[in-house]
Amino acid sequence: MSGLSHRRQVILFLCAVLVPYAILIALSIQVIGQDTELREARRSGQQRQTLARVRQELLARLEAISRDEIRRELKPGERYRHSEVVLVGWIEEERLVLPWETDSAAQRNRGLIAEPAFEAKIRGCEHAEFGSEQSRAAARCYEEAADGAGSVVQKAYARLQWARALDKAGQRKPALALFETLLAAGPEITDEDGIPLALFAADSMAQQGAPSPRIFESVNAVLSAHPWPTPASSFLASEIAGKLARRSSGTEWQKAEDLRRTVGALVRMTEQAQRLDSDLLHLGLPRRDKTGQPVWIAYGDDLWLVGTAPEENKRTPVIVVRAPDVLAPIETRLGMHFADAREPQGEPLGDPFSGLKVSIAPPPSPSLQQSFDLQRRLYYFALLLVAAATTFGGYLLWRDLRRELRLSELRAQFVSSVSHELKTPLTAIRMLAETLQMGRVPDPDIQAEYLDTITNECERLSRLVDEVLLFSKTEQGKKVYRFRPVHLEDTIMAAARALEYPLRQKGFELHVHIETGLPVVKADEDALEQAILNLLSNAMKYSGDSRDIDMALCRSNGNMVIRVSDHGVGIPPSEQSRIFDKFYRAPTRENQLIPGTGLGLTLVAQIVKAHGGKVAVKSTPGEGSAFSICLPLEGNV
Predict the structure, then answer these.
(1) Fewest Cβ atoms closer than 10 Å to its Cβ: which of 105, 183, 272, 377?
(2) Torsion over CA: 66, 68, 73, 75 (sign)
(3) Domain residues of the chain, as ranges?
(4) Residue 476, by phi and psi: left (phi above 0), alpha (psi -120 to 50) or beta?
(5) Which fold has domain 103-278?
(6) What is the pLDDT of residues 120-140, one digit of tens each?
């Protein structure tokens, strides 16, 4: 009957809620899908138009920059016309010729320093300085080389070596004077590697702690002379800025930090330019699209756009611009975001741009947007109502079914346990009675023992039946408690006597401790005795190998406390809050081997609650359990 009722509830639930809910969902999905397709079509069309406009505008801007910069040869002190330009180079023999590699001033200086007579004089001085370790003699040699130099570059180069030799010889003051003259040499005076001699002088002066203003002025002059100093010059300038920052404070420290940030950005750009040279073949430069237009490639961590121009004199011009500087005006005006191919969001911008993506969200027309929003709200609101009703109904049905299944399971377990509890003593009574009836035990002492066992099993049956009846009456609200003045010590002793034979038969020792001078309390003596018997029976069942049970009666904090303690298996902390539920037994391996109905502690809790008291448990697995019945004394003393 119960299964039929459950099926009927499920069928009614499906018919009343789920079927309309499913139909509404299907219709809503179809309508929303159509609306979404329409919006997507309009969005895609607008996006294609926007992308075409962006490509055209961006390509026109880059072509204008290329025309202005490609054929220009920068002179010392000049910068690129367009601030967006990073560098202009050439592809020769499948490699990128970078700007600092074509510096005519550096090439001229390299030739002057390498003149045979001057180079031989410098080599002789270096032999005295490094081979013989005669710094003073080397300083005089460099001085002679400077006096006999045939050009400004040779004179400055010899003075730099002269100043270094004097510094090594401990003559700091004349060395510092020479370094100061080199600061004014200008960025066009370089060594054979293209590094301005002024930077070497600035580095030595920063190391010695010389005043900073001249050093700042010299380093800034070198950095502003050309957009691309050599990589070695950039790294040396970075070292100088670090030394100045470490020994400066206040305004000077802030200037040093600004210089270090500027040089740091230049170093990063230099490293990325060198990586671009290494990746040239991988990028496939020069590259053209299907229409023959140059392809602009997004490249690097600091996003660059790299493009080429038609070949000139067997060289292919390469121009590199900072992508954020070129793209920022378009982003601001059209509300979009550009990124390289590494970012997951966005769509490729398409030819003639490689690796460049753009995220566009053009808003639809306001009236159409409002219509879409209103329809969606109606659909979502209807779906929400149906979903809420379905969910709530499903929850109620699930809760009821779950409760009924749990109760059915507990009832089945209870019936099985009660049947076992009844069958065991009945089997013993029948066996012993048949033995006595057949006269197979002539010994009077054994006969008496058999009769005691039969009596004890009958009392056990009686207690079990009383327990079931008491639980039934309590559940139905028919249990009537008869309160009268009671001496609890008499109740405790009566319970102890009732279990004296089973305790002795199983080898238990019951230790009873009763405080003297205790007052009487108003209670139902039979019900309390039943509760105490249940606690003692539990202690016997779960004592394990221990054979000691303690029972105490005392007065504490305005309560009469009855405590029953064992030293057995104990109760896990996670189960202690549920052991007073009806039919509940902790799912442990020991409980599976111990018979029981799951009603004993439930009855204890109900009886104590009817007396206005409470029952508590303290238990540690493997050490035992202690159950306490606390009965209030207000109005009883």
Answers:
(1) 377
(2) negative
(3) 2-64+367-418, 103-278, 481-632
(4) alpha
(5) 1.25.40
(6) 888 988 888 887 678 888 889
